[in-house]
Specification:
With about 220 residues, the chain is of the alpha+beta class. The protein is about 45% helix and about 20% strand. The chain folds into 3 domains: about 1-50, no CATH class; about 60-100; about 115-220, no CATH class.
Length: about 220
C-alpha cells in the first residue's frame, strides 16, 4: 500500500501517511465513488427510458398507426362526399319532375275574369277531348278515355304561359281500382299537344308507364 500523495510505502490498513499525513482511507473512498459514477452500468441505468423505443418519431409502430388513421379519415371523407352527391342528385330529379309535371289546382289563377277563364278552359279541353295523339291518329282521345276509365273528368290550368289539360279517372291496376291522372301539355306556340305526365294515386310514373297505359287505352277501344 502506498500513499497517493507522497508515494511513501505504508502498512496495510493505514489511515494516515506517517510522512505527509494524508488520509489514505478517504482518498480510496472518493476514488471508488468516482469510479462508480463513471461505470458503464450506472450510466445506462441513469439514462435508460423504457418508453424510448415507443416514442421515437420514426418508429414503425407509430408510422403504421398514422397510415391506418389517415386511410380511415379518407374513407369517411369519400363516403360523406358520395352521400351528399346522391342527396343532391335525388333533389334535382324530384325538382325536375315537379316542374315538368305540375299538379296545379283546377282553374286558371292568372285570369281573373271568370267568363274568360271558362272560355279558355273549355277551348283547350275540347282540343284534347276531340283531338288525336300522334301515335293514334284514327281515335279521338275523349272517346277512348270514356270507354277505358270510370268517373272521368277534365280540367285546364296554366303553368306560366303553357296550357295544360288534366284528365282524371279510375282504372283497374293489378285488380285494384286506382285513381289516375294524365296530363296533356300544349306546345309553346299552342299549336299541338301531347301526353306528358301520369300519376297513380298521386304518385308520378315514368314515361314508359305512361306510354304503356296509352297503348292499352287505344288498343282496347271498341268502336
Amino acid at each position: 500500500m502506498f500513499c497517493i500523495k507522497c508515494g511513501q510505502q505504508l502498512g496495510e490498513g493505514s489511515k494516515f501517511c506517517f510522512v505527509c499525513g494524508a488520509q489514505t482511507q478517504t482518498n480510496d473512498k472518493k476514488k471508488n465513488e468516482n469510479l462508480d459514477k463513471n461505470s458503464p452500468s450506472e450510466v445506462r441505468a441513469d439514462n435508460y427510458n423504457p418508453q424510448d423505443t415507443h416514442t421515437h418519431e420514426g418508429s414503425p409502430e407509430i408510422e403504421t398507426t398514422t397510415i391506418v388513421i389517415k386511410q380511415r379519415q379518407m374513407v369517411i371523407t369519400l363516403s360523406v362526399i358520395a352521400l351528399l352527391a346522391i342527396i343532391v342528385t335525388i333533389a334535382i330529379i324530384l325538382n325536375r319532375r315537379s316542374s315538368d309535371y305540375p299538379q296545379t289546382p283546377t282553374g286558371i289563377t292568372q285570369i281573373e275574369d271568370p267568363a274568360v277563364r271558362y272560355e279558355v278552359s273549355i277551348y283547350h279541353i275540347d282540343r284534347v277531348f276531340y283531338g288525336y295523339l300522334d301515335n293514334y291518329p284514327g281515335l279521338t282521345v275523349g272517346a277512348a278515355f270514356a270507354q277505358y276509365f270510370a268517373d272521368s273528368s277534365w280540367t285546364h290550368f296554366l303553368n306560366g304561359a303553357i296550357h295544360y289539360v288534366s284528365f282524371t279517372g279510375t282504372t283497374a291496376l293489378d285488380g285494384i281500382n286506382t285513381p289516375t291522372q294524365i296530363l296533356f301539355r300544349f306546345t309553346a306556340d299552342d299549336a299541338s299537344f301531347n301526353a306528358t305526365g301520369l300519376f297513380f294515386s298521386g304518385i308520378w310514373q315514368d314515361a314508359g308507364r305512361l306510354h304503356g297505359l296509352l297503348d292499352s287505352v287505344f288498343e282496347n277501344f271498341d268502336s
